Amino acid sequence: MFEKSRGFKVFITIFAIVIGIFIFFPLFWMINTALKSPSKTYTVDLFFSSFTIDNFKNVLFDRQILTYLRNSLFVSFTSSFLSTIVSMFAGFSFSKFRYRGRASLMSLIMMAQAFPQAILLLTLYTMMQKLRLDGSYISLMLSYIAFVLPVGTWTLKAYFDQLPDSLIESAKVDGAGWFRIIFQIMFPLAVPGVISTAIYSFVWSWNDLLYSLTLITEDAKRTLAPGLVMKYMGEFNNNWAEMMAASIVVSIPVTIIFILLQKYFISGLTAGAVKE
């Protein structure tokens, strides 16, 4: 190991400060704007001298925002649960079974990540129209599952690859069937990968704007992202102060979930990165 020079340490320090500014300054500006009155939105005030919490009060007691919040919670939790279940079975299948077309199917699933979201949306929207599911939560949740499936499948496959096949053989010797092997032995051992997939799916559906704005057209069914855009961003009037307050409020559930489950999320993402 070589000793780091003083110039290298100075460079790293300056680089870290610059990156920190790019990351945290937009967050600081959002909080600063949320604590201003709408009339002072465009004034340069970085020290909260015109402090007010009226914007947060308006958001928290707005029935329309609460409706969007309820819709987002339902869609995000449901799509996260379903996409995680599908990814669990797909990842286990690719990891522990050998069958004809397995490699081709794995490659085909990953190819979905190579296409832009807008291209996938065109295909999904046409499909949902033909199935007469457009405008429903089912179309939205199926779209989220389709997008999360490649990442979730490969994340869980990496976890199942680390589990020795001898566990399955020992369970079979003891008389266990596939149902018991999968649900009582293999899946519990892959909990970090399962949680990381669930978090990824939840965050994706919670923050999505493009799919939810296109597939859901009824205002009462809108989720948070398109709902906030349609409510605060108009052709002649933009309420940036209240928009920033709403953005902070709706980011709280995701932040809490990540803080509580971050160790599982990081463990799931790094699965298979180090080979013993």
TrEMBL record:
Subcellular localization, as worded in the UniProt entry: Cell membrane
The keyword Transmembrane is assigned to this record: yes
Transmembrane segments: 12-31, 73-93, 105-125, 137-160, 181-203, 240-261
Source organism superkingdom: Bacteria
Major localization class: membrane
Membrane topology according to the record: Multi-pass membrane protein
Keyword terms: Cell membrane, Membrane, Sugar transport, Transmembrane, Transmembrane helix, Transport
Domain ABC transmembrane type-1: residue ranges: 69-261
InterPro entries, per the entry: BP-dep_ABC_trans_perm, MetI-like, MetI-like_sf
The family this protein is said to belong to: Belongs to the binding-protein-dependent transport system permease family. MalFG subfamily.
Name of the protein described by the UniProt record: Carbohydrate ABC transporter permease
Species in which this protein is naturally found: Lapidilactobacillus achengensis
